[in-house]
């Protein structure tokens, strides 16, 4: 009974080795084949010997599995990105993971040019009030503010009587 390894890399390596062994073992010279029998009833004279063939010089383009794999490995460095040093890798990671803290408070979001609230400046303002450099809004709150004219009985409400104010209530701050 053959023991099986639990490591998938070893199993894959064994499978590749077996496949290469079969391919390389089967690529040897084959058995010579006899000429097909002649259907002519007459015997012809001695057949002319085929012209001597000159062996082809071994070229660079040797078609075969090993040669093709070699060409693939030659092209591999151009496909892969360059390997970074450990200090460059740590710099990249430190840019991604910056220490941050969540703060609470209230900062009004100003209206942008299209009328929608722009809460990035409000989040920055909230974080700067707590001693941080910039922020990103996590939670907002909206409320409708109306003028006192709306409370007059019998008066028709107009579109500009009320406005919606949006405030940032919590933000994620970073240095």
Binned strand content:
15-25%
Unreliable stretches, pLDDT < 50, 5 or more residues? Answer: none
Q: Work out the helicity level.
A: 25-40%
Structural class: alpha+beta
| Main sheet specs | 3 strands, antiparallel
Strand order of the largest sheet: 1-3-2
Describe this structure in words.
With 175 residues, this protein is of the alpha+beta class. The protein is 31% helix and 20% strand. It contains four helices and three strands. The longest helix has 19 residues, at 8-26. The protein is elongated.
Question: What is this structure, in a nutshell?
Answer:
The chain has 175 residues and is α+β, with helices and mostly antiparallel strands. It has four helices and three strands.
Structural topology:
Layout: H1 8-26, H2 65-79, H3 86-96, E1 100-108, H4 120-129, E2 134-146, E3 162-174
Antiparallel strand pairs: 1-3, 2-3
